[in-house]
Amino acid sequence: xxxxxxxxxxxxxxxxxxxxxxxxxxxxxxxxxxxxxxxxxxxxxxxxxxxxxxxxxxxxxxxxxxxxxxxxxxxxxxxxxxxxxxxxxxxxxxxxxxxxxxxxxxxxxxxxxxxxxxxxxxxxxxxxxxxxxxxxxxxxxxxxxxxxxxxxxxxxxxxxxxxxxxxxxxxxxxxxxxxxxxxxxxxxxxxxxxxxxxxxxxxxxxxxxxxxxxxxxxxxxxxxxxxxxxxxxxxxxxxxxxxxxxxxxxxxxxxxxxxxxxxxxxxxxxxxxxxxxxxxxxxxxxxxxxxxxxxxxxxxxxxxxxxxxxxxxxxxxxxxxxxxxxxxxxxxxxxxxxxxxxxxxxxxxxxxxxxxxxxxxxxxxxxxxxxxxxxxxxxxxxxxxxxxxxxxxxxxxxxxxxxxxxxxxxxxxxxxxxxxxxxxxxxxxxxxxxxxxxxxxxxxxxxxxxxxxxxxxxxxxxxxxxxxxxxxxxxxxxxxxxxxxxxxxxxxxxxxxxxxxxxxxxxxxxxxxxxxxxxxxxxxxxxxxxxxxxxxxxxxxxxxxxxxxxxxxxxxxxxxxxxxxxxxxxxxxxxxxxxxxxxxxxxxxxxxxxxxxxxxxxxxxxxxxxxxxxxxxxxxxxxxxxxxxxxxxxxxxxxxxxxxxxxxxxxxxxxxxxxxxxxxxxxxxxxxxxxxxxxxxxxxxxxxxxxxxxxxxxxxxxxxxxxxxxxxxxxxxxxxxxxxxxxxxxxxxxxxxxxxxxxxxxxxxxxxxxxxxxxxxxxxxxxxxxxxxxxxxxxxxxxxxxxxxxxxxxxxxxxxxxxxxxxxxxxxxxxxxxxxxxxxxxxxxxxxxxxxxxxxxxxxxxxxxxxxxxxxxxxxxxx
Length: 863
Prior knowledge:
The protein is mainly beta. The protein contains 7 helices and 60 strands.
């Protein structure tokens, strides 16, 4: 899989959302007197229709307000579970038990698994780990750590008190008593470490983290470079570091190798005297390439001329994860559905869909009158209907990172090989009456995204969240990855972890206010998908809920009014509280503005990533305290052009990128533009560019030595090779989102300090992207070889990953060749206009005097 189609994730979420649900129903209430068994056929069979409704079988308690769930409000018909704990909420006409979402909901107690309980004692801790367990920092900077703890049975323990942080080495200073602590790093002129530098203690148990401190000053006319693994924090040796001219791509000085004579992961590049601007590129076969474009080599700031290069391993070269099933599936006649996955590690904008979703599993689906064989379902899907177990095993893949031995020490050999990781397993699951599903949205076999999003909102109240916080797993080489055809079918090496069906309900219904939706192709986006979750240090983003809105009537800057909410732009979101070890993690909301009309093209989205005020969600279905999720979406990085050729074409030099017009990303607060090339093996070359340099762009060097050129689908040394798919992203970062932080500049992101790309998820507040697929052209008319075409007749080709037009990517040329071709075949047919309303179906007319037999028609794309 070469292209990273993030719309694939959204499509799966939107499609499966209409199959997921979970809040357990309230207990049946037995009426006293005339209806002792609570049996009914309609509401009038129940003693008091104001307080009960008939679900078709039993009388169930109903409500119109929270008061009607209390003992005083129900009079002779109290509900036992509403008179304990936090009482009940009136949730869509049903009295359901209230859950807590933060310790502040529980007075002297703490909130664990949605319930107020006594705080765990520090003495209950049997083991702990500090995250990151290994850090490389610069003298004079700061570094932040978190601690996780477990009891003797390896269940997570979330402490409220009893933690003591201490600096024990490497010139660090700081102390604290919370679950996280920031330390200051002393200045140094020589490298220090790695040594144990910080300790977290609770009772008799303690754990430490190692730190390497690098010098904090760089000589003039030099660049210092630190290369680290994004998901393990370890320095990377053996990477080639290359400085090149910002506008020429030519080599400046010698190519250096990290760890070749200094600290691990470190290299120093000497620049010609007076170099004003330099492009820095790092190459390693096992990782993505990374280029920092047009860095100011004359910088004199506090972190000047020391660059942080954070690489991610090639994501599909190795694979591993967990597999299992669900326990506690209800014994009902409904659809039992779930989608499971592993926490999203590192930057949320760097997903590999091939790895995230895993292989499709062909499944025979029989639900009532529906009988479909060989339906491809993602590996993480669970599906059953009544007693029929349709697909009961789920599996999900995780990314390489950090793992530990039995004695609690890091397994450095596995970490260095990218052969292990530790993530959280999550699931959204539910017991869904078939009548609640918008089956007609799938009419004709095509998913009507607008209809799905508009009608699944009412069933979100039935969702639940299930998770296993800590899942350690091994990774092994992926079969077929070396041929660009990764096969993830074999899960025999996956660790087994079963999930609990309906572990904690999505009990918190609240309202978010979206800013004006962005425009794509001169039209406002017409869909908004909300994903609620928790940002868990060392694990990643764990989904906990979902919501959706549409923008159709009229299609303007606001989503349509939902139900009884106060107006357009307000969208309901359902979430579970942090639970089963996630307590204390930051709540986050990802809001994805989508062009549903373009969904099948997989082209673009713009997203906000907001933190919940005071890190506390609440039950507020009418939006009395609306949650604002941001002031503005980022615009789409439209109009980007890259010249794959080594020589200039038009206004673009060889191997050069720039925007044809100002995409207006800098006024929107974008920190960086990130351009990503992805080759046939899903190996990537990422480039960071300051948005203010949209018109300057960048020029890429030719990779040194034997490194393949990932701007091409295979390699530019392969005859007939084509361009690699191109993704253009804009990213907005803040050094402390949700707490009055400061917008990150491009320089702050790329220079070595406390705000580098290894913590991208902590700083991201918005992102947008446009994906340009691999250019392809295929025949529509004539479709088959050997067909007859009349002279001067119309032929048609289909073009993808390439926009035809005078101001677009280029045009299509059809030529006719063959030994029997007449002299009139020498005139080519050009297709320079797309009259198919953007579908890429280009019609051309064959030459008037071209005739012959056994001729060949060739369609070629021209820039």
